[in-house]
Amino acid sequence: MKHYTSVDHIEDLDELLLLAKNIKSDPYTNQSLGKNKTLGLLFFNPSLRTRLSTQKAAANLGMNCITMNLNNEGWSLEFEDGVVMNGDKSEHIKEAAQVISQYCDIIAIRSFPGLTNKEKDEKDYVINSFVKYTSVPVISLEGATEHPLQALADILTIQEYKTKRKPKVVLTWAPHPKALPHAVPNSFVKMMQLADVDFVITHPQGYELNPEVTKGSTISHNQEEAFKGADFIYAKNWSNYNDYGKITSQDASWMVTTEKMELTNHAKFMHCLPVRRNQIVTDAVLDGESSIVIPQANNRTYAAQAVLTQLLKNGNK
Ligand code: CP
Fold it and tell me: Whose CA is nearest to atom 4 of ligand 1?
């Protein structure tokens, strides 16, 4: 693995999961691997889990961390080539990325999509500009189109909680008052396509994700039908992909409730967090025994540590 900005960059999922499991059972086993190495954490958007778990993962490996909120602490960056920089942008990504890569051995970036220009978002231009101009590995802390660290924690959690060889996993759209990106569902879909699971996506008609991502996956517009026999329910909102970035449904009947969970095979409830209570899922489900959102968030550390371990080992070859 050279960079980890997409689930597509995983070379061997079983190997990566075994590494994450071993790290979880002994997080400090490789404390010298990151000695005298620096991880740069660059945030263009807010974060709780990603920021703290990745810092903790780096600390477990003996790495130093430099964290910067680029939107309000750094110079405003220009990403277009060949422009006359006579506006509000002070620094070009070409210099910024090269400079940062002199200070850091690995750079990790969070940059959400604008959700107004589909073509621009699909290029994931912020993260890919760093990949283009840095000389060090780049990790996505959630880009415009993917959240691969989240998806690795998700499959690690499914592996831990599954009670049969090939569990049924359902990704369900749920309503939300704000337009949300497609990064989490995209990476989750890609991860489920790699994993040995019976996978179903359910969403209202018109809420199709990128067909390039979902091709080959089963899609149902009947949420209750999809829930039947499920072992895992993964709830997530996303904005309309076809009518790009718009909210075209806030249908409360898609919220995950106790009644719907009763259709499942005693399914575990998952969500990447943060989650809006009584919008996405009822209090009763989120606070109930089926919810595994807290251990799911705990696995963010071991997923990040597994990826950092692979990148550091590659750098030492
Ligand atoms: N799930 C997740 O990425 O959480 P944060 O946005 O808090 O980092």
Answer: 49
**Protein residue with its CA nearest to atom 3 in ligand 1:** 50
- pLDDT for 316: 63
Predicted local confidence at residue 204, as pLDDT: 97
Out of 3.40.140.10, 3.40.50.1370, 3.40.50.620, 2.30.30.30, which CATH number does the structure's domain 149-297 have?
3.40.50.1370
Give, using CA atoms, the residue closest to atom 7 of ligand 1: 48
- What is the structure's pLDDT at 27? 97
145 lines ligand 1 (CB under 6 A): no
Side chain identity at residue 193, one-letter code: Q
Q: How do the residues of the chain divide into helix, strand and coil, expressed in percent and rounded to 5? A: 40, 15, 45
Report CA(273)–ligand 1 centroid distance (Å): 6
Q: What is the pLDDT of residue 317?
A: 52
In CATH, what is the architecture of 7-146+300-315? 3-Layer(aba) Sandwich (3.40)
Alpha carbon distance 259, 52 (integer Å): 35
Low-confidence ranges of the chain (pLDDT < 70): 316-317
By DSSP bridging, strand 106-110 and strand 91-92 are: unpaired
Q: Cβ(49) to ligand 1 under 6 A?
A: yes
Question: Are the C-beta atoms of residues 10 and 195 closer than 8 Å to each other?
Answer: no
| Amino acid at the residue 241 | Y
CATH 3.40.50.1370 maps onto the chain at 7-146+300-315, 149-297
Q: How far apart are CA 134 and CA 128, in angstroms?
A: 10
